[in-house]
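Listing S7. Sequence submitted for prediction.
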Amino acid sequence: MSILSADQIRLNVKVSDKYEAIRLAGQMLVDAGHADQEYIEKMIERENALSTYMGSGLAIPHGTNEAKGMIKSTGLAVLQIPDGVDFGGDEPAVLVVGIAAQNGEHMDILTSVAMVCSDEDSMEAIRTAKTAEEILSIFESGMEE
């Protein structure tokens, strides 16, 4: 099972604040069967403790360490937010990637996502993508081991 599929990517999302973005990404993880409903609150808890904004328009919300038992399988949920949403960083987040990870995969996935998004060309391609498949192919090519 792939950790990201086209149906886990939403384009042109409009949210009022970072909490709405986190809840939307979290609900996508829940709906895909990656996590229990309670995981969303742990994502909010993590954000309140420490911002998940990574810089360069990227935020990677995820649950707290206590939320590990709420994760059923490893998966990602991607929100493209062209207008951006304030995550408390130096610029708005235009890409929000929710993560649920099992078996210590958490740091590897965070690193892989950050590496894909640290490339300015990839980030611009993600920001301007017109289809979920375009974003999926950028992540797949960048996350190959």
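Caption to Listing S7: primary sequence and predicted structure tokens for the chain studied. The chain has a mean pLDDT of 91. The CA atoms of residues 74 and 100 lie 5 Å apart.
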